[in-house]
Amino acid sequence: PPIIRRADYVPPAWRVPEVALDFMLDADETWVRATLSVVRADSGAGMPLALDGGGQKLVSLRVDGVPATWRTDGDRILIDLPGNAHRIETECVIHPATNTQLMGLYASGGLLCTQCEAEGFRRITFFPDRPDILSRYTVRMEADRATYPVLLANGDRINGGDLPGGRHWAQWRDPFPKPSYLFALVAGDLAVNRDRFITRSGRGVDLGIWVREGDLPRTGHAMAALKASMAWDERVYGREYDLSVFNIVAVADFNFGAMENKGLNIFNSRYILADPETATDADYDAVAGVVAHEYFHNWSGNRVTCRDWFQLSLKEGFTVFRDQQFSADQGSAAVKRIEDVRLLRAAQFPEDGGPLAHPVRPDSYIEISNFYTATVYNKGAELIRMMATMLGWDRFRRGCDLYFDRHDGQAVTCEDFVRAIEEGGEADLSRFRLWYSQAGTPRVTATLDHHGTAATLRLTQSLAATPGQPVKQPMPIPLRVALFGAETGRRLGEERLIVLEDAAAEIPFEGLAERPVLSINRGFSAPVIVETTRPAADLALLSAHDDDPFARYEALQQLMLDTILADLQGRIDHAPVIAAMRDVLGDAARDPAFVAEAVLPPSEAFVGDHLPAIDPEAVHAARERLRAAIGGALVDDWRGLHDRLKAGAYELTPAAKGGRRLRTIALSYMFAAGAADAAARAWAQFEAADNMTDRQGALAALASSDAAERPRALAAFYDRYRGDALVIDKWFSTQALSTRPDTLRAVIALAAHPDFTLANPNRVRALIGAFAANQRAFHQADGQGYRFVADMILALDPINPQTAARMVPPFGRWRRFDPDRATLMTAELNRILAVPGLSRDVFEQVSKSLA
Ligand code: B3K
Ligand code: ZN
């Protein structure tokens, strides 16, 4: 398949200022009539009009009302046009019910809905399907009234009515020019939660969240989050909503989290529906975060969009940063930052260190769907955050204002964004641009030499080669740094922001009253790996006294990581961790959410990232030994917490959420300790729960145990929630994440369960995605875990290539494992690659993983 390159960008030859679409909707066969007014662009002299297609049948084509001829070029059609402005009319037939890829117009649980980003619109009608073509859309839909009583599209409903034969129609108009990837329509039998928002300038906006009738009681949290997001973007970024309608529709079958279509967001139902009985606290946070994210796209993505797909991080990195800021403002900023960094380290660092590494602004792709990655999204957000850190909020905000003002209504590049921040914020970001072009996670070494009342901090940076990028240059790395007194734990002087510009630097400190302990990359000010040797006593001191909560967390994480790594080399000493943990537990009453984060040991995957060659069984065993030691030494504390944190009536406050989280962690430490009462406590928590957080927490603890209560709890959970897809997903994923040695066998059996289906991406992620993230089970030494996931990829590829391709990256880490596992992993990659007719999606991920 061809490689698309950023350097090959050419501006469009034709513009399409107006589009009129007319849909005769039907699940089996939908007719699409499109009228495009096309205008030759400056660069279009002598060029044909090229319209992308996606395998649909073209029934007729007219130019200025007259039947016309065309040429084909793969899936595209080319039309030679004599003049500079023409009217193109096409008529196509598509088949939503058999659209299992879930791109374009497809059926989901009796609804018809669309997903166009990145290149789905071409599967609906022939169109120059690229984000730098901005058009005004008018959409007419006609359908059977009983099956599809609700007809929605972008913008405002301007007309509609009944038709003979039980049919009806509606017409919508979106006044804002938009790229085709933001087009949306929905038809179906939906109920609506309506509300209203008054913007800062006094305009009323009608809000609607559309779901299946029975789901209406679960839409309140999403609606509250939507209104909070609208107010937040006005207050923090000065951005107001611009249409008089904002609709959200929840659908059960969706490849991704949600989609920011102009005025008509379409969501995976798992990011809309929440009530205490079926959604965990984490689900509640995810709903609010994704609702905010899609809403914020209205400015960062829709009003200002991407010139081409290489610029994806322009909208995604910025919008993730904005949703992170929003969530931080809604609850504990410290805990939110810890969660963001945990995700970055779990998903992005491994990507940056493996064969699929790519810059935040990629240089080439085969299938753009493969580039909706943690690098583009989450590292992209870190780049924005670094700019905000270096400029300070006020200057950064002035840069954002200039960006939005200057580029409103345009399709632009990451370079345009950086230039606006530079000019509006009065900064020089010339070397900072390297962060967009260089892949890989920088390593910073830090040593602090102390002499008398002075000290010298020596820093170096390096960046390893990544595919296609053998040699790298130093980048500006903003590091928030403070020193603490080794005796008193007091901070010595102010925190400093040090921007490491070159390969190495020496920073002097003076006037130090006692030996200093280094606190560096506070708040995780840069997405780098810091290598610095601090003895256990210093880490314990920081974990007790650092006044940056992220740095406190980080110190205890480092101490636990060092302890596990030492164990793997035969040196077992759990005492410093236990002492530090006892200290941290002193804060459990004051800040349970923070303590819950702090006491969790680093994941097996994160530990593996620090080893030259990973033996997953050994990592699992060492980490379990640490958990057992922490559990056992502090068992009375855990028992006490488990008793004390038993909540009264359910509340969704930050304190109540933190309490629930810490309570279940206490329970799991009791299991780790082998406490005789752990299983009975888990069962009691499971049975008495008045919310999903407590119930699933207890279930997860039992699922990894040998307790007699385990099968009982799994069966009771299934019976209680049978038919509730989002909860049954949890039932699948909880079992797939079990640390028991027989997990693979259980997962193979679950893949044959009547409720398992490859047709629903949530279900696939719940079972197969969760299993592939289970380090011990996926990497089972006999290779059967690899074989199972590879079989699933091959089975899914013909149905849904996007979702199939997302399961390939765990195989790409083969170089990090022992030779036997590496051989087994590459054998599966080769087995996949040998299958004829692979999708572009899977082909790209597998072939790159082998390279
Ligand atoms: N922009 C969409 C992503 C759609 C991905 C399709 N492959 C969701 C989001 O980031 O908001
Ligand atoms: Zn997004």
Give structural notes.
There is one protein chain. The chain folds into four domains: about 1-190, tricorn interacting facor f3 domain (Immunoglobulin-like, Sandwich); about 305-435, Orthogonal Bundle (Neutral Protease, domain 2), CATH 1.10.390; about 445-535, Aminopeptidase N, middle-beta domain (Immunoglobulin-like, Sandwich); about 620-645 and about 655-850, Zincin-like fold, CATH 1.25.50. Strand 17 (about 190-200) and strand 18 (about 205-210) form a beta hairpin. About 55% of the residues are buried. About 40% of the residues lie in helices and about 20% in strands. With about 850 residues, the protein is an alpha+beta fold. It has an eight-stranded mixed sheet with strand order 6-5-9-3-2-12-15-14, with no helix packed on it. It has 27 helices and 31 strands. The model has no long low-confidence stretch (mean pLDDT about 100). Helix 5 (about 375-390) packs across helix 6 and helix 17 (about 680-690) runs antiparallel to helix 18. Bound molecules: (3S)-3,7-diaminoheptanoic acid (B3K) and zinc ion (ZN). Zinc ion binds near residues 293, 297, 316 and 319. Keywords: Aminopeptidase, Hydrolase, Metal-binding, Metalloprotease, Protease, Zinc. This is Aminopeptidase N. Belongs to the peptidase M1 family.
